[in-house]
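Subject: for your reference before the review

Hello V.,

The reviewers asked for a structural picture of the protein, and I figured it would be easier to keep everything in one thread rather than splitting it across files. Below is the amino acid sequence we used in the manuscript, unchanged from the supplementary table.
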Amino acid sequence: MLDGAASTEYGSGQTPPTMVAWPLMEAAPEPSLRAPRSPLSRAAALLAALVGATVLFAAFGGDGSDVDGILPVGGAAVVLLGVALLAAAVGWPVLPRLHAPGVVLVGAMLLLAVWTGATVIWSIAPDRSWDAFNRTLAFTAFLGLGLMLAGAAGRVAARVGAAVLSVVLGVVLTWALATKVVPSLDPEGDRVARLREPVEYWNALALLADVALVLGLWLGASRGHRSAVRVAGGLLVYVATLALALTLSRAGVVAAIAVVLLWLALSRERVESGLVLGASAIPAALVAGWAFTRPALVEDGATRSDRVSDGAWLGVLGGIGAVVVAVLIVVGSRRALGETARFRLSRGLVVAAVVAVAAGATGIAVAAGGAATSSSCAEIANDPSRLGSVDVSNRLCWWNEAWDVFAANSPEGAGAGSFVVARKRYREDARNVVQPHSVPLQLLADGGVAGLGL
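And here is what came back from the structure prediction:
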């Protein structure tokens, strides 16, 4: 189920909560594939498969977190969680022991669901508040599934959770790119060029690509992973980079830089991660650069014939890029790095990172110097030029409207999900904006001080 800052047509994105603890990825021992499988391990694998299928269904059937997706996706999560809890009542799976941060997380999520439901009482749009309540219950159910999977998988829970997400995101992002290669998979693509299927919102898809980047680096660079797993990791980084570029999401690009830098700062395999990133992201950037020159792939209102022609070429070039990535990863995984080579590569990667950051900062400064931020709430063009723009005038308008809604309905808020209605008193144009593109301000306007706090 995906939610967060929404556009004028779609809901936005966050991935379902899961019990993936990044620091444990390297600390937890790698499960042996040759070890005899106990009934517990088979049952844990079954639960992991069911949770993965439910998360995948959320991406394809969630309807951009809109009303039509809440019942099927949330219902599937609730049913699976109920079955898992019944199984836990007879001794399997073992419920995980929650330490203080876990207790706070679960408690805050449950209280947020209760508070969201309570806002129906005073909401200016009770029907939308009820939908928001159902959506929050779906999020809570996914958190519960993450907890149950953590209990079932035990000491390898972090690896199992990461593996499930890797498979799900690989399928989602590959399908997203397939809609460009085969235009009939996305009938709305003639009207809207930005990559958004199957989650139906480009910023949500970009956030999923950001998660996939780190998971791909973990698969491709961590010690002990077999060559096939390393290749899968490199391909996940490749697909994620290409999909991220075609979403044209500025926030997604900024988040991608942040999560990659965080991974490199925390990972023990910084050199290997840098090599995997270079071997995978550079071919993806070259394919994306070519796609940016084809209006049928990146500009709204393209004709179907042009989309079919350019989509076929994207498929060819994308396939070639994937082969190049696989070859580079296979060759690289067979070469052992000595201390001298590791030191030189580490130093080179640091220099490359500094140059990239400096170039990015310079580009942002130039774009900011030439930007004309207005108070007209005008939309930024949906084409590659938006990636070089720092104009946030439309966001500023929506943020101001969210604050105005809260100020007029302080301290309890106007009601969950009511921003689309409540903003009409303060808006400067007639566009239908569902959410203010800011999760904190959205919670403040809808749920007041309590909603923001939770």
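For the response letter, the relevant points are probably these. The CA atoms of residues 221 and 297 lie 32 Å apart. The mean pLDDT is 84.

Happy to draft the paragraph if you're swamped.

O.
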